[in-house]
Amino acid sequence: MKAIVYHKYGSPDVLRLEERVRPTPRADEILVKVQAASVNAFDWHVLKADPFLVRLSGFGLFKPKYQILGADIAGRVESVGAKVTKFKPGDEVFGDTSIRGIGGFAEYACTSEKLLALKPAGITFEEAAAVPMAALTALQGLRDKARIKPGQKVLINGASGGVGTFAVQLAKVFGAETTAVCSTGKLVMARSLGADHVIDYTKTDFTESGQRYDIIYAVNGFQPLWRYRRALTDNGIYVMSGGDGAQMFQAIALAPLLSISGGKRMRTFVEHPNGDDLNFMAELLETGKVKPVIDKRYSLAEVPQAIGYLIEGHARGKVIINVNRENRT
Fold first, then answer.
1. Which of 20, 39, 97, 176 is the most exposed place for a label (fewest CB within 10 A)?
2. DSSP H helices in 121-244
3. What angle do CA 117, 120, 124 make, to 5 degrees?
4. Half-sphere exposure of 26 toward its Cβ, with a 13 Å CA cutoff?
5. How would you label 249-260 residue by residue, b for 16+ Cβ within 10 Å and e otherwise?
6. What digits encode the pLDDT tens for the residues 100-152?
7. Which residues contact 142 (CB under 8 A, 6 or more apart)?
């Protein structure tokens, strides 16, 4: 099979299109013929091993343990292991493979049946591939960490990216009054996703406006923690799920200290892939309450360019890899 492979940590330049042996599913695994995948900041962090914690988290201390990136996949079940009960060959599925060795930037990928869900009939493979990691990060951040409630004032910082576009929509699904923070050219898109208010961060610093929020969800953490804390209500909560290595280290190190005094809480978290939450998202996708936002599409051979585009920081929603279609649109 064809796959995008890397043998050392580094920039997208270290990625190569190679022929690899098609993987064989273990007893609890499914072999998926991948139709589409998507690019996440996760792929960039693992590719360059930044933060260094990546190396200590099972991805390889000196060189990559798993040589094929790509957490999000959507495709058809090719075969199943002996203990698999939820799926059968031919089923159309989608999921996040990140805790089973990743591997989505390839024509075939193996993963646990617990990490997959049936693809809703009403959406394409591209749309399904856009969902797993980004949507579950948004869902778990708002529902599980922030414990969002109807009527709360919620601000999404970084509302135009992969996680942010899902977070805006999910906040509305949960009945919140939602404010989206993004750049000038993306304000219209944020409103189209249901945001009640939009803030252009190039013109306005929301932490200095005097407005207070019950939840601040920082998809991209471009403010010092004390500024976020200042913009919270007395019992508000700040949740961070993204940013560069320095920002994530700052949040992990300082958030507990800033949560000690008063009712304001500061939290960080990492998405937990699972089929139950994917099924929850599938229902929202089927009913049209949530829709993936796709910015650009690339072929499998163009994965290095796709990752390069994502790390420029200008993507509107998700960047998709058409694994079995070599024409970029």
1. 20
2. 125-129, 132-139, 162-173, 187-192, 225-230
3. 110
4. 5
5. ebbeebbeebbe
6. 778 999 999 999 999 999 999 999 999 999 999 999 999 999 999 999 999 99
7. 148, 154, 167, 170, 171, 174, 215, 217, 239
Peptide bond into 292 cis (omega under 30): no
What is the spatial distance between Cα 168 and Cα 293, in angstroms, rounded to a whole number?
Answer: 12
Question: Helix, strand, or coil here: 236?
Answer: strand
Q: What whole-number distance in Å separates Cα of residue 169 and Cα of residue 178?
A: 9
Q: What is the pTM of this model?
A: 0.93
Answer yes or no: are the C-beta atoms of 214 and 233 closer than 8 Å.
yes
Please give the structure tokens belonging to residue 145.
Answer: 């960490």
Query: Do 79 and 101 meet the contact criterion of CB atoms below 8 Å apart?
Result: no
Question: In one letter, which amino acid is 232?
Answer: L
What is the dihedral sign for C-alpha 99, 39, 140, 286? negative
